[in-house]
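Researcher: I'd like a structural prediction for the single chain below. Treat it as a standalone chain; there are no partners to consider.
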Amino acid sequence: MITRTLEATVSARLRQFPAVALLGPRQVGKTTLARRLAEAADSVYLDLEDPVDLAKLADAAGYLRALRRRLVVIDEVQRAPGLFPLLRVLIDERIRAGEAAGQLLLLGSAAPDLLRQSGESLAGRIAYLELSPLDIRETGAGLASRLWVRGGFPPSFLAEDDGQSAEWREQFIRTYLERDVPQLGPLVPAGTLRRLWTMLAHGQGGLLNLAELARSLAVDGKTVARYVDLLADLFLVRRLPPFHANVRKRLVKSPKVYVRDSGLVHTLLRLDDQDAVLGHPVAGTSWEGFVLETLIRAAPDRAQASFYRTATGVEVDLVLELPGNRLWAIEIKRSSAPKVEKGLRIACEDLQPDRTFLVHSRDEHYPLGGGIEAIGLAALADALAGRPSAQASAP
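Model: Treating it as a single chain, here is the predicted structure.
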């Protein structure tokens, strides 16, 4: 059992809010985490993909009213979208009865309808948390290469060998396209969505060009935008916005786009092991996306992530605006002996960050001059999370 870093946060939110929604893609570990929390409380667990549990909600008001003073966990809640207005009524009843927090834990696959309906019905009563695939803080730095190649979905990462891991990821992609996407979003041809997903993997970390994608797929730009929105809503794709700095330079305005799980990048490109990944041109941008996802997850609440790029190509891979008006600039290199390029120094002059890091593939932490620090991924993730580390500490 791998302890998830989000577990303590979920527990804290349940002590603060009447309802907590734990969102994320399928097979990421939401059910496992929720069951661990349910075992530690007086609780009832309902899985709405189980016909028996779904039948219990035929008279949802009567059934749920009988569960006062207990934590009610509802898995796959998007299968009962009409439940949310009733949940608001029941939450308010329990609040008036003295239960200010810890009433409901809702699990969902981040369907757009789920977010919209819960936001409308439960505003002010619910906290949202995202459970992402495993990251380096949960697996340990010694398994970073395996985590990068296989990705962070637990069944993929924990598979007996690379072949079984690759097969699991292939089946995951197929199941998402053929079963889950039709359930969770608008009707989208599975073949078209797979081609789009694969094109995004080929262009990992590139600027989002909807017109070019539309031409390649033979559809219009609005349709492609809707497909990208769907993949982003399902936490499968990230659109990283550009940083809007107050500098007298022309800045790129388009977001960068990443397939969020590195293992899915590799499977979409038919790269089943580390040798195949290292021999492919995507290796550098795949590593960049892997590092970026790790650091964004480790960053404190309310941190804002973006990238900085000017029209002349001066760039910083990741800019984090942290609480306390702190600005961290982060460049990502897969090299074990990274060198500071001129563009990074120019970007630092533009941005004037509080700290500047160059993340590399080894563990050493040392200065590179000009206020730039070379650092390993695990150490920087710990620094962002406020965890003590032998290599780095948050200012």
